[in-house]
Structure formats: structure tokens, C-alpha cells
């Protein structure tokens, strides 16, 4: 027969030796470990014993959660649902409201198509597609990690949250780069600048480009913008600022090359970067799954591809910017659709025929341009006006080259870290990327324990009244001997006469009678 009994269980922690003080009971006495108590000189049954219900509670002093942290946590936890709702709203508006289609169509189509040439120009409407792709990457990343990669990690023996999250993040990068690299190689192989450095600049400033190349660059731009968001809303790694700087430089280079019509060189640079980015996350995934030998082999392939692509071929691109652009490109400002050697519609304009919107600001610019007297407008006009003049001179060349070289500097710093990992592999310690944060769970637990030890002195201890815990129990769950095992006190009975000590049978009958079972006890 099941019934409801109230079991009083303290919610605090036991009193430490220096803090144990008996709280007064209802009868005026106090006891912690006694097996019996007296009330008016009469022995009280064990179930009527009254002890202190005041316990010592440790309150941890935690850091306050700011509204921004709460918002970012909400974003991380709801990326899939947020992306799905935004897409549902967009496509419902597109299908149900015909008047809105001229605006909603910009989010998922390539803008500025020239039907005569079959190529695309660029403009401000490209931002709609980039925004759509950023949300798409966020939703795909979160859903793929939660519903595909995390279950796969558990099936391979990963159970802790941290390794599962790290594995899912790296596996997602493998998937993305396995798409980017073949796509970029396909465009490069079918381009006129395949294995020809000088042809990277021949068709400048051709304003129109094939739709596949435009899509490739916008997808890459959206991915790196989404990566900037990710590293700022998720748990920060120890190389957070290096990664953030790298991402900002990458976004700046893609944007500048896109707006200045230097798209061929952007295609080549992205290919060189993507090939090594496949091997590193793949090696990390193998490390998490315990395949240490193949992980070391993959890390060796990563190191080789990194050195060849980023420290041999990439400097060749920088050299081409410095050496070939002054020879192939005639410095000046141009308007029109075609490139210098490809179309007569691209004409050179006078030094003062650029935009005059920034004339007042241009006078305060600290640098001088040989191409135009308007010192600042010629740099900004291509970023704002897709039909305006595009200029290339020594200022543009050195600004572009400076960003490329600064990116190379960051890559060199990372390469020294990679060499340190390679030395450990040779010594038999195994590959472990030093650029990411402490991904060893044991190290994190040790750090947490040290932090707890430092903060324990700052915690406060207070006395609070213990709350009763209501539980649904049956008669068979009641253990009348449990208190004896917990306290170590046993009742003595007479084995020779078979007579129990007074109160034992009556106490049990009274207890069962209180919970409605008195009819079952004789």
C-alpha cells in the first residue's frame, strides 16, 4: 500500500568541525548524534526525536552575468531555431506578398546580371545575399554540430561535453573547406590566369565577372563574417585576438579585392589558404577520436601544405603585386565595364573626374596620389559606387600589399607554433595544436579546482532552515533500521526470553498507524 511520507533532508552541507553548534530543539534540549531523547523524563520514540533543522549553507560568490553575456548565450543556444524562423519569415513574405518580391529576391539571388554578356557586376545589393549567407552558415553550423557531428562523436566513444563540442567544431570546418577548396580550384583551372601570374592583372578593371566567381567570393566573405561572430559569442580561446585579427584582415582583403575588381588574385589566395585548413581540423578530429598515429601523419601533411602554400606560393603573389602590377596596369582612374586590354569601354578619366563627395575630407588626407588631386575620394569611391571610377596607383598598390604582408606576418607567427608541435611529435609526445586553448579536459578540471581553492576563502557560510522534501513512497520503502546503521547505535533485545524492549513493537505500530497502515499490523 503506497502512501505519502515526509522525509526531512537538509539542503545544505554538514557543519564543519569548527562550526558545529547544536541548535535548540522544541523541547529545549539539543542533540546531533544521540539515539534517544527525553521529554519530561519520558523516553521519546526515535521517530518523534527532534533535532536541529538549521544547517550551515555555503554560498558561492559568483561573477555577475551581464546582459550581454546572457544575450550571447541565448544566441549560441538558439542558432538553429533563429535561422529557421528568419528563413521561414523571408520565404513566406516572398510567396504571400508579390509587392515585396522585388526586395526579398535580393536575399537569395545574385544581383546585377547583364543579360547581354551573361556576367554580373557588383553593387550595394550584394549585401543582402551576404546577410542571407551569414544566417545560413549559422543555422547549418549549429544544426550540423547538434544533430550529426555530436551524435557521431558519442558513437565513437566521446562522452564529455568539451571534447564533443571541440570535435564538432573541427569536423564542421573540415566539411566547409572540403567545399571551398574544390570549388576554388575549379574556378582557377578554368580561368585565363591559370599558372600565369601576369594574367592576374591583365583584365583589370573589368567590372563584370562570371556568376560562379561572384558566388564563390560572396560565400567566402559570408563565411568569414560568420566566423567573426562565432569567436565572439562562443567560449574564447587563448589565441582569440590573433584569430580575430586574422579574420578581420581576411574580410578586408576579400572586400577590397571584390570592390577594386582584383577578383582573380582573391581566388588564388583563398585557394592557397584553404588547402592547409583542411588538414588541421582533420588532424584534430582524429586526435579526439584516439587515432594518434594517423593524426600525426595528417599533421605532417598539414605542416607540409602550410609551408608550401603559405610561405612559398603566397609570397609569390605578394611579389607579383609589387613587380607585375606596375608593368601590366597603367596607373590611373578608369570608368567603364571592360578591362584595359579587353574592352574599349574602359576609359581613363582625368584626375578630377572622380567623386567629389569627399572633397572636404580629402584635403586633410596625409598622403598624396599621382592619379588624382582628390586625395581620399579615389580610394573610397569604388567601395560606394559600383559605376564610379576605379583607381590604381602606388597608394593603392602599397595599401593592398601591406595587408597581404601583415597577413603573412601572422602566418609566420603561427608557423613557429606549428614547428613546436612538430618537435613534440618527433620526440614522441604526439601532435597537439598550440594555437587553440587548453583542450585537455583534465587540465581544465585542474584549473577549475585551483580556482575553487582560491575562491573558497571568499565564500560565505550562513545558517538556514532545512526544507522538508516530499516524496511518494510505499510501505516497503520504509527502513526502520536505517537510523541504527547511520548512527551505529543498536537496540538490545533479550534473545532468551523473546521479550522486546518496551516501545519497539508499539513504536512501529504507531508509526505505521500515522501513515494509514494500522490495519495491517496486529
UniProtKB/TrEMBL annotation:
Residues 438-450 have a biased composition (Acidic residues). Keywords: Membrane, Transmembrane, Transmembrane helix. One of its GO terms (cellular component) is membrane. GO terms for molecular function: sphingosine N-acyltransferase activity. The chain crosses the membrane at residues 80-97, 127-149, 170-189, 215-233, 288-309, 398-419. Residues 27-37 have a biased composition (Low complexity). The keyword Aminoacyl-tRNA synthetase does not apply. Its main location: membrane. Residues 1-43, 430-458, 488-522 are annotated as: Disordered. Pfam families: TRAM_LAG1_CLN8 (PF03798). SMART domains: TLC (SM00724). Residues 504-522 have a biased composition (Basic and acidic residues). The keyword Ribonucleoprotein does not apply. It is a multi-pass membrane protein. GO terms for biological process: ceramide biosynthetic process. Residues 165-427 form the TLC domain. Belongs to the sphingosine N-acyltransferase family. This is Longevity-assurance protein. It comes from Ophiostoma piceae (strain UAMH 11346).
Amino acid at each position: 500500500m503506497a502512501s505519502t511520507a515526509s522525509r526531512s533532508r537538509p539542503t545544505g552541507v554538514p557543519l564543519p568541525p569548527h562550526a558545529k553548534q547544536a541548535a535548540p530543539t522544541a523541547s529545549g534540549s539539543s542533540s546531533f548524534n544521540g539515539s534517544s531523547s527525553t521529554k519530561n523524563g519520558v523516553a521519546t520514540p526515535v521517530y518523534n526525536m527532534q533535532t536541529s533543522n538549521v544547517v550551515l549553507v555555503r554560498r558561492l560568490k559568483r561573477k555577475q552575468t551581464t546582459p550581454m553575456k546572457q544575450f550571447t548565450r541565448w544566441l549560441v543556444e538558439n542558432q538553429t531555431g533563429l535561422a529557421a524562423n528568419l528563413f521561414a519569415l523571408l520565404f513566406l513574405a516572398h510567396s504571400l506578398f508579390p509587392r515585396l518580391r522585388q526586395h526579398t529576391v535580393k536575399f537569395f539571388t545574385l544581383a546585377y546580371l547583364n543579360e547581354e554578356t551573361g556576367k554580373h557586376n557588383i553593387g550595394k545589393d550584394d549585401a543582402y545575399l551576404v546577410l542571407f549567407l551569414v544566417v545560413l552558415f549559422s543555422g547549418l553550423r549549429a544544426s550540423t554540430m547538434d544533430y550529426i557531428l555530436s551524435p557521431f562523436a558519442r558513437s565513437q566513444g566521446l562522452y564529455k561535453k568539451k571534447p564533443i563540442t571541440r570535435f564538432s567544431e573541427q569536423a564542421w570546418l573540415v566539411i566547409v573547406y572540403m567545399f571551398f577548396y574544390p570549388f576554388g580550384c575549379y574556378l582557377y583551372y578554368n580561368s585565363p590566369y591559370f599558372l600565369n601570374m601576369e594574367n592576374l592583372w591583365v583584365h583589370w578593371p573589368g567590372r563584370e565577372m562570371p556568376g560562379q566567381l561572384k558566388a564563390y567570393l560572396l560565400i567566402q566573405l559570408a563565411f568569414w563574417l560568420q566566423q567573426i561572430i562565432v569567436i565572439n559569442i562562443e567560449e574564447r580561446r587563448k589565441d582569440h585576438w590573433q584569430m580575430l585579427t586574422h579574420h578581420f584582415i581576411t574580410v578586408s582583403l576579400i572586400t577590397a579585392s571584390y570592390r577594386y575588381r582584383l577578383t582573380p588574385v582573391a581566388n588564388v589566395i583563398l585557394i592557397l589558404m584553404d588547402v592547409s585548413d583542411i588538414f588541421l581540423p582533420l588532424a584534430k578530429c582524429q586526435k579526439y577520436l584516439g587515432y594518434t598515429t594517423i593524426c600525426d601523419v595528417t599533421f605532417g601533411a598539414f605542416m607540409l601544405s602550410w609551408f608550401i602554400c603559405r610561405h612559398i606560393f603566397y609570397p609569390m603573389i605578394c611579389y607579383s603585386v609589387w613587380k607585375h602590377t606596375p608593368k601590366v596596369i597603367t596607373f590611373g582612374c578608369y570608368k567603364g565595364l571592360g578591362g584595359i586590354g579587353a574592352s574599349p569601354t574602359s576609359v581613363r578619366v582625368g584626375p578630377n573626374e572622380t567623386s567629389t563627395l569627399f572633397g572636404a575630407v580629402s584635403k586633410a588626407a596625409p598622403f598624396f596620389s599621382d592619379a588624382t588631386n582628390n586625395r581620399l575620394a579615389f580610394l573610397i569611391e569604388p567601395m560606394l559606387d559600383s559605376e564610379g571610377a576605379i583607381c590604381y596607383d602606388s597608394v593603392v598598390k602599397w595599401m593592398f600589399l601591406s595587408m597581404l604582408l601583415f597577413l603573412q606576418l601572422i602566418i609566420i607567427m603561427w608557423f613557429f607554433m606549428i614547428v613546436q608541435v612538430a618537435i613534440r611529435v618527433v620526440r614522441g609526445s604526439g601532435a597537439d595544436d598550440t594555437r587553440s586553448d587548453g583542450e585537455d579536459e583534465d587540465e581544465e578540471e585542474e584549473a577549475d579546482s585551483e580556482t575553487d581553492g582560491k575562491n573558497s576563502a571568499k565564500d560565505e557560510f550562513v545558517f538556514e532552515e532545512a526544507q522538508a522534501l516530499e516524496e511518494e513512497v510505499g510501505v516497503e520503502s520504509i527502513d526502520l533500521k536505517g537510523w541504527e546503521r547511520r548512527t551505529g547505535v543498536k537496540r538490545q533485545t533479550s534473545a532468551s526470553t523473546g521479550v522486546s524492549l518496551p516501545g519497539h513493537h508499539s513504536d512501529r505500530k504507531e508509526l505505521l498507524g500515522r501513515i494509514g497502515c494500522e490495519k495491517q499490523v496486529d
